[in-house]
Amino acid sequence: MADTSQPAPSGPHHRQPPSRRQFILRGVGGVIAVAAIGTAATASIASASSGSDLRASLTIIAPAAAGGGWDTVAREMQQAQRANGIVNNTQVVNMPGAGGTIALNNLAVLDGEASTLMVGGTGQLAGSIQYDSDSTYADVNPLALTVEEYSVIVVPGDSPYETLDDLMNAWRENPGAVPWSGGGSFDQLVVAEMAIAAGLNPQDMIYVPSDGGGETTQALLNGTVVAAASGYPDSVDQIESGRLKALALVAPEPVEAIDIPTTVEQGYDVTLTNWRLIVAPGGITDEEKSQLEDIIRETIETPEWQDAIERYTWNENVKFGTELQDFLESERVRIEGLYEELGL
């Protein structure tokens, strides 16, 4: 990685980047199942990455299966670039597994190949810590923060809990009687922050992970869990139908388009957001980095991208350069602290 692309990583969190032949398939659950996907996707990336004109062809890796938040960001960027002629040919490759760390490890292998990008985010940063990934954001080239998605604290529509205080008081009285659910690493961290804000030991909480919003809703409705943290876009239909009741939006301040009181407004300093990052491999030149940043800026200024922000109720939170690096470092420290609280 060129010294001028970003500060040279150092300290205990920097690891030597893997060799170009190495495909890291570490993690939990499903890693073996996605090995073939990872290999095929990498071959596709290598093919699409030939040539030096970054406006001719780009590949965007979504580090999860089709339909999730990372995939949605990748495909909305693809659509905006195609519709406005920003890039002639943008491809999206899905590379799921291990909280996004399989994609992160494979991106590190593509050192210097500037025509491959990846969507990252809070969950991937958490996964790299939780699974002790061989590659971290220090081994690649974070380019831009684009948007963030808010979580919502929900209970079943017929729950006796009418307010967040009702739920928190019951949780304090008997942590074992208030099991929670959510999908993936990010939602677990939100629940851990809720526990800390309520004065509970996160290690005492019962958390039942689910495989997405649909499974979380089912766990709430069949009584497996009492409450859940879930992405607002995944839950809004269930909230509007009355099947779920929203007690709080996990956000630092009120959101005009979402009529739900925030955690902060209700006295709980819980503000972790599910932000979306665009990342390039390490080893790219200053000129390539500048060109990629220009492409991202043009993309997020398009009507198509702005329409996506409105449709998915994303919050636009754009950061480049030093501001981005400082943000990522603060989030790494924050998430590592939450995992220590969880005893993981």
TrEMBL record:
The chain crosses the membrane at residues 23-46. InterPro entries: BUG, Bug_dom1, TAT_signal. The keyword Transmembrane applies. Pfam families: TctC. Keywords: Membrane, Transmembrane, Transmembrane helix. Residues 1-20 are annotated as: Disordered. PANTHER family: TRICARBOXYLATE-BINDING PROTEIN, UPF0065 PROTEIN YFLP. Belongs to the UPF0065 (bug) family. This is Tripartite tricarboxylate transporter substrate-binding protein. It comes from Rothia santali.
